[in-house]
């Protein structure tokens, strides 16, 4: 049943229409496309809901509402409609993330009722690479295995804490976070390079579809930065992912992270959109 402004929760019968919507920009929409394909839009598997906005019976925009709230193909009008619906239920999400303009309009619509965010990150470059990296890949980068966990897990915690500003183990989250690290490893989506048994570079595929894969968690220990490990490591990850996971590799980066942006540019990533993130 449609609510005000043509918004309603989606279900399994809406999957084809949603995938058609996401395919209008399959790289930018890789996260929500992946979530739809792996959950069949069933709320119990989504851990939340996917909302659709309809005009004349056609789905024109959508919004993932789980731990992350992510607008999909949303114009300013769509974002305002999603914000109005969101205000009726209160904030349950920890992050709002996605294309800059839609996130900004959505946030403006809910800010008064959702409380002060922990951090606002505007203008995050969304990058992608569709071909061979511009630099030689590090031949030492490989998929991680369970025998790597003693090195890998602390590195993942350190990366997350540095990037997000709070440990993933905060508030008793260690078990869930370890399960997530293990899940990515088991999927073959966790990559690292080791130097005499010590992890010196890592990165993961966060999500993937037949069209694209999104990279997360790129990290080098502070005392090994500036050696080119991330550049050669990312070139290796791009080659592995393009060959075995998806043809296009994407990620988004903080605008102020000049060293990371230089690294990705050297590898051959180019900016194709701008993201924004609101963190609670």
TrEMBL record:
Residues 139-280 form the N-acetyltransferase domain. GO terms for molecular function: acyltransferase activity, transferring groups other than amino-acyl groups. Pfam families: Acetyltransf_1 (PF00583), DUF4081 (PF13312). InterPro entries: Acyl_CoA_acyltransferase (IPR016181), DUF4081 (IPR025289), GNAT_dom (IPR000182), UCP21603_acetyltransf (IPR016794). This is N-acetyltransferase domain-containing protein. It comes from Nocardioides ginsengisegetis. The lineage of its organism: Bacteria, Bacillati, Actinomycetota, Actinomycetes, Propionibacteriales.
